[in-house]
Specification:
Number of domains: 1
Distance between the termini: 33 Å
Largest sheet: 8 strands, parallel, barrel
Number of strands: 9
Oligomer: single chain
Mean pLDDT: 91
CATH superfamily: Phosphatidylinositol (PI) phosphodiesterase
């Protein structure tokens, strides 16, 4: 998922109101990808705070399991790309990961930023926002990760705010077995309607598709007819954001939540 531009200017007059969902009248949910990946170090608390400030409905984040069984928020299997450390997350303790700098590689401004635990993120924002939690690998790689994620969501009373998503369908099946009430979504790289039967077998409510393979409103219609919702990722340019805001998809994820909110709000005003 590439970054297409550097949108750092805050849309004029845009303010986040605590507890408000931006697009409740639009039908499309707006998510910050790894927080605000284009504006702050991905999957960190500053990144999530930035996304929330711009008024998204929710944030997307990725989780792994540390050597000592803590749920770590990071995209890659290794810490090398986004921190000053080296090694696989599964081979490092949470204390070792917490000692790393997760901001310096993005910008000197973020020096000293730490890698968060899932529970830290959920506690900070609570029920003010929605969450898409992507489990990167199932219990085959991270024994017990599904139980730990579900437990955190249940203990913090966020069942109605969380959707658990994954490319790993075994992981989603395990989540549903633990708690059938949790919303789940499959992540795919293919035409959305190819995966309708898969989503139904997994009791998933959502299909999250690579945007390049979602062509028009017919793709949306095919899923809606089967009782499924369609999300698209990762949309970073102005033309694509506007097109998908008008297409009827159910959620859009972007590295630039400022641009996403600004353009979808504009599209909304044209429909009134």
């Amino acid at each position: 998922m590439s970054q297409d531009a550097d949108y750092t200017e805050k849309p004029e007059g845009l303010k986040y109101i605590k507890g408000e969902q931006f697009n409740s009248d639009m039908g499309v949910l707006l998510y910050g990808h790894r927080g605000a990946r284009g504006l702050a170090p991905e999957n960190t608390l500053p990144s999530f705070r930035t996304a929330v400030e711009y008024g998204v409905d929710g944030v997307e984040l990725d989780v792994h399991l540390s050597k000592d069984g803590e749920v770590i928020v990071m995209h890659d299997d290794r810490v090398d790309r986004t921190t000053n450390g080296s090694g696989y997350i599964k081979d490092l303790t949470s204390a070792e990961i917490k000692a790393l700098d997760a901001g310096l590689k993005f910008s000197e401004k973020f020096r000293g930023t730490k890698v968060p635990l899932l529970e830290e993120v959920l506690k900070e924002f609570g029920n003010r926002i929605l969450y898409k939690i992507e489990i990167k690998h199932s219990s085959r790689i991270y024994p017990g990760i599904e139980e730990k994620v579900v437990d955190a969501v249940e203990r913090l009373n966020l069942l109605d705010r969380v959707q658990i998503i994954s490319f790993d369908f075994d992981s989603l099946q395990a989540v549903k077995e633990l708690n059938p009430q949790i919303n789940t979504g499959i992540i795919i790289e293919g035409r959305p309607h190819w995966f309708i039967d898969v989503a139904k077998r997994l009791n998933a409510s959502w299909v999250h598709a690579f945007s390049g393979l979602v062509y028009d409103s017919d793709d949306v219609k095919k899923l809606h007819e089967e009782g499924l919702k369609l999300g698209v990722w990762t949309i970073n340019d102005r033309e694509s954001i506007t097109r998908f805001c008008n297409m009827g998809v159910d959620d859009i994820t972007s590295d630039y939540p400022n641009l996403l909110v600004q353009l979808c709000r504009k599209a909304q005003s044209h429909h009134k």
